[in-house]
Amino acid sequence: MLRDACEAPITVDDAAREAALSRYHFIRRFKAVFGDTPHQVLIDSRLERARHLLARDGQSVTEICASVGFSSLGTFSYLFSRRVGVAPSVYRRNARALIQVPEILPRPLYPGCFSLMCGWPG
Q1: What local confidence, expressed as pLDDT, does residue 79 receive?
Q2: What total of structural domains would you count in the chain?
Q3: Range of the domain at 40
């Protein structure tokens, strides 16, 4: 529900009301269960969508920033850099260098021993 909030905004108050809890008790319980606050989950969801768009889409970083729900390019760039480890434009350049077939993201790489033990394709 909250992960889809990029598309249809939902407030913590709405979620707390649905769970029949006060706002602050809902946030505490949510963090105890999921390890992050609802706001952190929303930010992570937006950044994950931004990573996908940066790797595959032709939109500018500013357009992607707005399309995933950030109102400030500075905030988006700061959070993206802090959580992903590189600036959005650097991430785009690196991700696109890994893509060999247009529109298809590369498979994740696993150590060979895991591939052999689990019977995964190499």
Answers
A1: 94
A2: 1
A3: 3-101
